[in-house]
Amino acid sequence: MNAWRQTLSRLMRAGSRLLLVAILGAASLVAAAAPALPADIIADLSSLQKRLEQGEYQDVSRVALSQAERLEEGNASDRWASALYLQLAAGAEARLEHHENAADLLYRARQTPGLESQQYDRWLYEEASSRLSAGQIELATQRLAEWLETHPEQEREIWLMVQLLVRQERWDDAASWVDRALDETATLDSQQSALAVTVYQRAGNIDKALVVLEPGLDSDAPSVEWRRAAAMAQQLEQFALAAAIWDAGWRIGALEGAEDLLTLVQLHLRVGTPARAAEYLEQALSQGLVKQTPAHQRQLAQAWQAAKDQARALEAWQTVAERSGMAEDWLRLGQLAHGWGKTDATRHAWEQAAALGAEQARRWLARLE
Protein backbone atom coordinates (compact mmCIF):
# COMPACT_ATOMS: atom_id res chain seq x y z
CA MET A 1 0.00 0.00 0.00
CA ASN A 2 2.91 2.37 0.73
CA ALA A 3 3.97 2.29 -2.91
CA TRP A 4 0.52 3.34 -4.05
CA ARG A 5 0.38 6.10 -1.45
CA GLN A 6 3.77 7.40 -2.55
CA THR A 7 2.61 7.41 -6.17
CA LEU A 8 -0.53 9.35 -5.33
CA SER A 9 1.43 11.81 -3.19
CA ARG A 10 3.88 12.42 -6.04
CA LEU A 11 0.97 13.13 -8.35
CA MET A 12 -0.44 15.57 -5.84
CA ARG A 13 2.86 17.43 -5.66
CA ALA A 14 2.95 17.47 -9.46
CA GLY A 15 -0.55 18.96 -9.44
CA SER A 16 0.65 21.78 -7.21
CA ARG A 17 3.51 22.52 -9.58
CA LEU A 18 0.99 22.75 -12.41
CA LEU A 19 -0.88 25.43 -10.51
CA LEU A 20 1.47 28.16 -11.69
CA VAL A 21 0.81 27.12 -15.28
CA ALA A 22 -2.92 27.53 -14.74
CA ILE A 23 -2.39 30.85 -12.99
CA LEU A 24 -0.45 32.28 -15.89
CA GLY A 25 -3.11 31.19 -18.36
CA ALA A 26 -0.95 28.75 -20.29
CA ALA A 27 -2.60 26.65 -22.95
CA SER A 28 -2.88 23.57 -20.76
CA LEU A 29 -5.81 21.18 -20.96
CA VAL A 30 -6.47 21.71 -17.28
CA ALA A 31 -6.97 25.45 -17.42
CA ALA A 32 -8.08 25.92 -21.01
CA ALA A 33 -11.72 26.60 -20.16
CA ALA A 34 -11.04 28.61 -16.97
CA PRO A 35 -12.17 32.27 -16.65
CA ALA A 36 -9.51 34.94 -17.08
CA LEU A 37 -7.96 36.20 -13.85
CA PRO A 38 -7.13 39.84 -12.96
CA ALA A 39 -3.47 40.74 -13.00
CA ASP A 40 -3.28 41.34 -9.24
CA ILE A 41 -4.75 37.89 -8.52
CA ILE A 42 -2.28 36.26 -10.92
CA ALA A 43 0.59 38.07 -9.19
CA ASP A 44 -0.62 37.07 -5.73
CA LEU A 45 -1.12 33.43 -6.68
CA SER A 46 2.32 33.34 -8.29
CA SER A 47 3.88 34.83 -5.16
CA LEU A 48 2.19 32.31 -2.90
CA GLN A 49 3.26 29.47 -5.19
CA LYS A 50 6.90 30.58 -4.89
CA ARG A 51 6.59 30.88 -1.10
CA LEU A 52 5.13 27.36 -1.04
CA GLU A 53 8.15 26.07 -2.95
CA GLN A 54 10.40 27.86 -0.43
CA GLY A 55 8.80 26.00 2.48
CA GLU A 56 6.57 28.72 3.97
CA TYR A 57 3.79 26.19 4.41
CA GLN A 58 1.90 27.63 7.37
CA ASP A 59 1.85 31.20 6.03
CA VAL A 60 0.83 30.05 2.55
CA SER A 61 -1.99 27.97 3.98
CA ARG A 62 -3.29 30.83 6.12
CA VAL A 63 -3.13 33.50 3.40
CA ALA A 64 -4.45 31.27 0.62
CA LEU A 65 -7.42 30.13 2.69
CA SER A 66 -8.26 33.72 3.62
CA GLN A 67 -8.17 34.76 -0.03
CA ALA A 68 -10.27 31.76 -1.06
CA GLU A 69 -12.99 32.61 1.43
CA ARG A 70 -12.97 36.27 0.38
CA LEU A 71 -13.49 35.42 -3.29
CA GLU A 72 -15.76 32.35 -3.16
CA GLU A 73 -19.04 34.32 -3.41
CA GLY A 74 -17.92 36.55 -6.29
CA ASN A 75 -18.25 36.25 -10.05
CA ALA A 76 -16.95 33.40 -12.21
CA SER A 77 -13.42 34.78 -12.26
CA ASP A 78 -13.44 35.22 -8.48
CA ARG A 79 -14.72 31.70 -7.93
CA TRP A 80 -12.00 30.29 -10.17
CA ALA A 81 -9.39 32.26 -8.25
CA SER A 82 -10.91 31.00 -4.98
CA ALA A 83 -10.54 27.41 -6.18
CA LEU A 84 -6.88 28.01 -7.07
CA TYR A 85 -6.25 29.50 -3.62
CA LEU A 86 -7.87 26.43 -2.10
CA GLN A 87 -5.52 24.22 -4.09
CA LEU A 88 -2.55 26.23 -2.83
CA ALA A 89 -3.77 25.89 0.73
CA ALA A 90 -4.26 22.15 0.22
CA GLY A 91 -0.71 21.83 -1.08
CA ALA A 92 0.63 23.63 1.98
CA GLU A 93 -1.45 21.48 4.35
CA ALA A 94 -0.24 18.32 2.63
CA ARG A 95 3.39 19.38 3.14
CA LEU A 96 2.59 19.96 6.80
CA GLU A 97 1.20 16.39 6.79
CA HIS A 98 -2.25 17.72 7.64
CA HIS A 99 -3.71 15.35 5.07
CA GLU A 100 -7.33 15.48 6.20
CA ASN A 101 -7.26 19.29 5.98
CA ALA A 102 -5.73 19.05 2.50
CA ALA A 103 -8.45 16.65 1.40
CA ASP A 104 -11.21 18.89 2.75
CA LEU A 105 -9.77 21.89 0.90
CA LEU A 106 -9.60 19.96 -2.36
CA TYR A 107 -13.19 18.87 -1.84
CA ARG A 108 -14.20 22.52 -1.47
CA ALA A 109 -12.27 23.42 -4.62
CA ARG A 110 -14.15 20.74 -6.54
CA GLN A 111 -17.48 22.31 -5.61
CA THR A 112 -16.69 25.45 -7.60
CA PRO A 113 -19.59 26.09 -10.03
CA GLY A 114 -18.66 25.71 -13.70
CA LEU A 115 -15.41 23.92 -12.96
CA GLU A 116 -13.87 22.34 -16.06
CA SER A 117 -14.15 18.53 -15.92
CA GLN A 118 -10.46 17.79 -16.26
CA GLN A 119 -9.61 20.11 -13.39
CA TYR A 120 -12.38 18.51 -11.33
CA ASP A 121 -10.89 15.09 -12.03
CA ARG A 122 -7.39 16.21 -11.07
CA TRP A 123 -8.56 17.56 -7.72
CA LEU A 124 -10.71 14.48 -7.18
CA TYR A 125 -7.63 12.30 -7.68
CA GLU A 126 -5.56 14.47 -5.35
CA GLU A 127 -8.31 14.36 -2.75
CA ALA A 128 -8.27 10.56 -2.91
CA SER A 129 -4.52 10.71 -2.26
CA SER A 130 -4.98 12.93 0.76
CA ARG A 131 -7.83 10.81 2.14
CA LEU A 132 -5.60 7.78 1.85
CA SER A 133 -2.69 9.53 3.56
CA ALA A 134 -5.06 10.64 6.32
CA GLY A 135 -6.17 7.07 6.88
CA GLN A 136 -9.70 7.81 5.67
CA ILE A 137 -9.91 4.56 3.76
CA GLU A 138 -13.66 4.56 3.08
CA LEU A 139 -13.61 8.12 1.71
CA ALA A 140 -10.46 7.41 -0.29
CA THR A 141 -12.23 4.41 -1.80
CA GLN A 142 -15.29 6.48 -2.69
CA ARG A 143 -13.22 9.21 -4.31
CA LEU A 144 -11.09 6.79 -6.30
CA ALA A 145 -14.18 4.88 -7.46
CA GLU A 146 -15.68 8.16 -8.69
CA TRP A 147 -12.45 9.03 -10.50
CA LEU A 148 -12.36 5.62 -12.17
CA GLU A 149 -15.85 6.18 -13.58
CA THR A 150 -14.26 8.58 -16.07
CA HIS A 151 -10.88 6.79 -16.26
CA PRO A 152 -11.98 3.14 -16.57
CA GLU A 153 -8.79 1.79 -18.14
CA GLN A 154 -6.27 2.97 -15.55
CA GLU A 155 -4.66 -0.32 -14.54
CA ARG A 156 -2.64 1.02 -11.61
CA GLU A 157 -5.58 2.75 -9.97
CA ILE A 158 -7.86 -0.26 -10.45
CA TRP A 159 -5.37 -2.38 -8.52
CA LEU A 160 -5.30 0.32 -5.85
CA MET A 161 -9.08 0.03 -5.58
CA VAL A 162 -8.66 -3.69 -4.98
CA GLN A 163 -6.18 -3.00 -2.18
CA LEU A 164 -8.42 -0.43 -0.55
CA LEU A 165 -11.37 -2.81 -0.58
CA VAL A 166 -9.21 -5.61 0.82
CA ARG A 167 -8.25 -3.36 3.74
CA GLN A 168 -11.96 -3.04 4.46
CA GLU A 169 -12.50 -6.80 3.98
CA ARG A 170 -15.08 -6.08 1.28
CA TRP A 171 -14.23 -9.27 -0.55
CA ASP A 172 -17.13 -9.41 -3.02
CA ASP A 173 -16.55 -5.80 -4.11
CA ALA A 174 -12.82 -6.43 -4.33
CA ALA A 175 -13.44 -9.48 -6.53
CA SER A 176 -15.45 -7.35 -8.96
CA TRP A 177 -12.55 -4.91 -9.20
CA VAL A 178 -10.10 -7.78 -9.69
CA ASP A 179 -12.21 -8.79 -12.70
CA ARG A 180 -11.67 -5.30 -14.11
CA ALA A 181 -7.99 -5.30 -13.21
CA LEU A 182 -7.38 -8.56 -15.04
CA ASP A 183 -9.08 -7.15 -18.13
CA GLU A 184 -6.63 -4.23 -18.12
CA THR A 185 -3.45 -6.09 -17.14
CA ALA A 186 -1.51 -7.81 -19.90
CA THR A 187 0.87 -9.71 -17.61
CA LEU A 188 0.44 -10.09 -13.87
CA ASP A 189 3.42 -9.58 -11.60
CA SER A 190 3.78 -11.78 -8.54
CA GLN A 191 2.15 -9.28 -6.17
CA GLN A 192 -0.86 -8.77 -8.43
CA SER A 193 -1.28 -12.50 -8.87
CA ALA A 194 -1.10 -13.13 -5.14
CA LEU A 195 -3.60 -10.35 -4.46
CA ALA A 196 -6.04 -11.61 -7.09
CA VAL A 197 -5.87 -15.17 -5.79
CA THR A 198 -6.42 -14.06 -2.20
CA VAL A 199 -9.39 -11.88 -3.11
CA TYR A 200 -11.07 -14.52 -5.25
CA GLN A 201 -10.49 -17.17 -2.60
CA ARG A 202 -11.91 -15.02 0.21
CA ALA A 203 -14.88 -14.08 -1.97
CA GLY A 204 -15.59 -17.75 -2.62
CA ASN A 205 -14.66 -17.60 -6.32
CA ILE A 206 -12.35 -20.59 -6.08
CA ASP A 207 -12.54 -21.37 -9.79
CA LYS A 208 -11.30 -17.88 -10.68
CA ALA A 209 -8.59 -18.06 -8.03
CA LEU A 210 -7.31 -21.29 -9.51
CA VAL A 211 -7.29 -19.84 -13.03
CA VAL A 212 -5.03 -17.01 -11.80
CA LEU A 213 -2.81 -19.20 -9.65
CA GLU A 214 -2.18 -22.15 -11.97
CA PRO A 215 -0.12 -20.37 -14.71
CA GLY A 216 2.37 -19.19 -12.10
CA LEU A 217 3.19 -22.69 -10.90
CA ASP A 218 6.76 -23.38 -11.98
CA SER A 219 10.08 -24.34 -10.44
CA ASP A 220 10.36 -20.89 -8.86
CA ALA A 221 6.94 -21.03 -7.21
CA PRO A 222 7.08 -21.80 -3.47
CA SER A 223 5.63 -25.06 -2.25
CA VAL A 224 2.81 -23.22 -0.50
CA GLU A 225 1.48 -22.09 -3.88
CA TRP A 226 1.47 -25.63 -5.22
CA ARG A 227 -0.38 -26.84 -2.12
CA ARG A 228 -2.80 -23.97 -2.39
CA ALA A 229 -3.61 -24.73 -6.03
CA ALA A 230 -4.15 -28.42 -5.33
CA ALA A 231 -6.37 -27.59 -2.37
CA MET A 232 -8.47 -25.27 -4.53
CA ALA A 233 -8.87 -27.95 -7.16
CA GLN A 234 -10.05 -30.39 -4.51
CA GLN A 235 -12.43 -27.79 -3.12
CA LEU A 236 -13.94 -27.58 -6.60
CA GLU A 237 -14.03 -31.40 -6.67
CA GLN A 238 -11.62 -31.35 -9.60
CA PHE A 239 -9.59 -34.19 -8.15
CA ALA A 240 -7.86 -35.12 -11.41
CA LEU A 241 -6.57 -31.56 -11.67
CA ALA A 242 -5.46 -31.65 -8.04
CA ALA A 243 -3.53 -34.85 -8.72
CA ALA A 244 -1.96 -33.37 -11.84
CA ILE A 245 -0.88 -30.24 -9.95
CA TRP A 246 0.59 -32.25 -7.08
CA ASP A 247 2.31 -34.63 -9.48
CA ALA A 248 3.91 -31.75 -11.38
CA GLY A 249 5.00 -30.09 -8.15
CA TRP A 250 6.57 -33.33 -6.98
CA ARG A 251 8.41 -33.94 -10.24
CA ILE A 252 10.05 -30.50 -10.29
CA GLY A 253 10.96 -30.64 -6.61
CA ALA A 254 8.56 -28.00 -5.30
CA LEU A 255 6.92 -30.70 -3.18
CA GLU A 256 9.07 -33.20 -1.33
CA GLY A 257 9.30 -35.44 1.68
CA ALA A 258 7.31 -38.40 2.94
CA GLU A 259 4.14 -36.47 3.74
CA ASP A 260 3.95 -34.91 0.28
CA LEU A 261 4.65 -38.27 -1.34
CA LEU A 262 1.85 -39.95 0.58
CA THR A 263 -0.52 -37.14 -0.38
CA LEU A 264 0.42 -37.72 -4.01
CA VAL A 265 -0.29 -41.43 -3.64
CA GLN A 266 -3.69 -40.75 -2.09
CA LEU A 267 -4.61 -38.33 -4.89
CA HIS A 268 -3.69 -40.82 -7.59
CA LEU A 269 -5.71 -43.52 -5.86
CA ARG A 270 -8.68 -41.19 -5.60
CA VAL A 271 -8.73 -40.23 -9.28
CA GLY A 272 -8.31 -43.75 -10.61
CA THR A 273 -4.62 -43.87 -11.46
CA PRO A 274 -3.54 -46.57 -8.99
CA ALA A 275 -0.58 -47.73 -11.08
CA ARG A 276 0.96 -44.27 -10.78
CA ALA A 277 0.28 -44.31 -7.05
CA ALA A 278 1.92 -47.72 -6.71
CA GLU A 279 4.98 -46.68 -8.71
CA TYR A 280 5.55 -43.63 -6.53
CA LEU A 281 5.03 -45.55 -3.29
CA GLU A 282 7.21 -48.48 -4.34
CA GLN A 283 10.05 -46.14 -5.26
CA ALA A 284 9.69 -44.25 -1.98
CA LEU A 285 9.76 -47.48 0.02
CA SER A 286 12.83 -48.76 -1.81
CA GLN A 287 14.69 -45.45 -1.33
CA GLY A 288 13.77 -45.19 2.33
CA LEU A 289 11.79 -41.99 1.88
CA VAL A 290 8.77 -43.75 3.36
CA LYS A 291 9.18 -46.23 6.20
CA GLN A 292 8.54 -49.92 5.56
CA THR A 293 5.51 -50.11 7.83
CA PRO A 294 2.71 -52.70 7.51
CA ALA A 295 0.29 -49.90 6.63
CA HIS A 296 2.45 -48.63 3.78
CA GLN A 297 3.06 -52.15 2.48
CA ARG A 298 -0.68 -52.83 2.49
CA GLN A 299 -1.28 -49.57 0.67
CA LEU A 300 1.21 -50.63 -1.99
CA ALA A 301 -0.48 -54.01 -2.38
CA GLN A 302 -3.91 -52.39 -2.62
CA ALA A 303 -2.62 -49.96 -5.27
CA TRP A 304 -1.18 -52.74 -7.45
CA GLN A 305 -4.38 -54.73 -6.98
CA ALA A 306 -6.49 -51.73 -8.04
CA ALA A 307 -4.20 -51.31 -11.05
CA LYS A 308 -4.86 -54.99 -11.93
CA ASP A 309 -1.14 -55.63 -12.20
CA GLN A 310 -1.37 -59.30 -11.23
CA ALA A 311 2.30 -60.10 -10.76
CA ARG A 312 3.09 -57.03 -8.67
CA ALA A 313 -0.13 -57.24 -6.68
CA LEU A 314 0.45 -60.89 -5.75
CA GLU A 315 4.07 -60.16 -4.86
CA ALA A 316 3.09 -57.19 -2.70
CA TRP A 317 0.35 -59.10 -0.89
CA GLN A 318 2.74 -62.00 -0.26
CA THR A 319 5.18 -59.56 1.33
CA VAL A 320 2.35 -58.29 3.55
CA ALA A 321 1.42 -61.83 4.58
CA GLU A 322 4.99 -62.89 5.24
CA ARG A 323 5.67 -59.86 7.43
CA SER A 324 2.40 -59.95 9.32
CA GLY A 325 2.29 -63.72 9.90
CA MET A 326 -1.49 -63.48 9.94
CA ALA A 327 -3.71 -66.19 8.47
CA GLU A 328 -6.19 -63.65 7.12
CA ASP A 329 -3.52 -62.04 4.96
CA TRP A 330 -2.63 -65.43 3.45
CA LEU A 331 -6.34 -66.07 2.90
CA ARG A 332 -6.70 -62.74 1.08
CA LEU A 333 -3.68 -63.52 -1.08
CA GLY A 334 -5.10 -66.93 -1.94
CA GLN A 335 -8.47 -65.46 -2.87
CA LEU A 336 -6.84 -62.88 -5.11
CA ALA A 337 -4.67 -65.50 -6.82
CA HIS A 338 -7.65 -67.81 -7.22
CA GLY A 339 -9.68 -65.04 -8.86
CA TRP A 340 -6.89 -64.50 -11.37
CA GLY A 341 -6.54 -68.23 -12.09
CA LYS A 342 -3.15 -68.60 -10.40
CA THR A 343 -3.56 -72.13 -9.00
CA ASP A 344 -0.03 -72.61 -7.66
CA ALA A 345 -0.04 -69.25 -5.91
CA THR A 346 -3.50 -69.97 -4.53
CA ARG A 347 -2.45 -73.33 -3.10
CA HIS A 348 0.70 -71.89 -1.53
CA ALA A 349 -1.19 -69.07 0.14
CA TRP A 350 -3.93 -71.25 1.56
CA GLU A 351 -1.43 -73.81 2.78
CA GLN A 352 0.26 -71.04 4.75
CA ALA A 353 -3.11 -69.92 6.12
CA ALA A 354 -4.00 -73.49 7.07
CA ALA A 355 -0.68 -73.88 8.86
CA LEU A 356 -1.63 -70.84 10.92
CA GLY A 357 -4.89 -72.49 11.93
CA ALA A 358 -7.34 -71.18 9.35
CA GLU A 359 -9.99 -73.90 8.97
CA GLN A 360 -11.49 -72.09 5.98
CA ALA A 361 -8.19 -72.45 4.18
CA ARG A 362 -8.31 -76.22 4.65
CA ARG A 363 -11.80 -76.39 3.13
CA TRP A 364 -10.75 -74.29 0.16
CA LEU A 365 -7.66 -76.42 -0.36
CA ALA A 366 -9.85 -79.52 -0.45
CA ARG A 367 -11.87 -77.99 -3.27
CA LEU A 368 -8.69 -77.36 -5.26
CA GLU A 369 -7.88 -81.11 -5.32
Automatic annotation (TrEMBL):
Signal peptide: 1-33
SUPFAM superfamilies recorded: HCP-like, TPR-like
Keyword field contains Signal: yes
Coiled-coil segments on the chain, per record: none
Domain of life: Bacteria
UniProt-listed Gene3D superfamilies: Tetratricopeptide repeat domain
Keywords: Signal
Protein name: Tetratricopeptide repeat protein
